[in-house]
Design a protein that fits this description.
mainly alpha; about 75% helix; disordered C terminus
């Protein structure tokens, strides 16, 4: 997917389109796995690997620092759609209510991991990124951190 760039990063429209495509792929990877833990691991690994390979695409999810007014409102709605997707994926794997606050935290942390991926170009730094990703996956995917089913 090509992302239209403007000064400072991708255009707002291109960012939203790329973010929606990444969100759909993430959800597909979570729900196709047998368990929540396996789905989160597969989806987060794929997302970071794609971010490392396609930095412009990654910026679509994390680049909103320069937006104001209506554009910022649209980006906030996009972030809400990511959390809504995580809730739907949770419900696919569990009969218990989703831990909405934890899923919001997870998405914020995931955005940070993606932002780190934009800073890392050498192999040792990418290995560090992958280690941080595993830590993040362990936090959100470990059932003991979540309400009982």
């Amino acid at each position: 997917m090509m992302v239209e760039m403007v000064e400072g990063g991708p255009s707002a429209g291109a960012s939203l389109e790329a973010s929606a495509a990444m969100r759909a792929r993430f959800e597909l990877l979570v729900v196709r796995e047998r368990t929540w833990k396996d789905g989160i691991a597969a989806a987060t690994t794929d997302l970071v690997e794609r971010a490392l390979a396609q930095p412009a695409l990654a910026r679509a999810v994390v680049n909103d620092s320069s937006e104001r007014g209506a554009e910022l409102s649209v980006r906030r709605r996009d972030r809400g759609q990511w959390v809504d997707m995580l809730i739907a994926a949770w419900k696919h794997h569990h009969s218990s209510p989703p831990p909405e606050c934890q899923l919001e935290f997870f998405f914020g942390a995931l955005r940070r991991v993606i932002a780190w991926s934009l800073e890392y170009e050498d192999t040792p730094a990418r290995d560090e990124l992958r280690m941080r990703l595993r830590t993040l996956q362990g936090f959100v995917a470990t059932e003991t951190h979540l309400p009982p089913s």
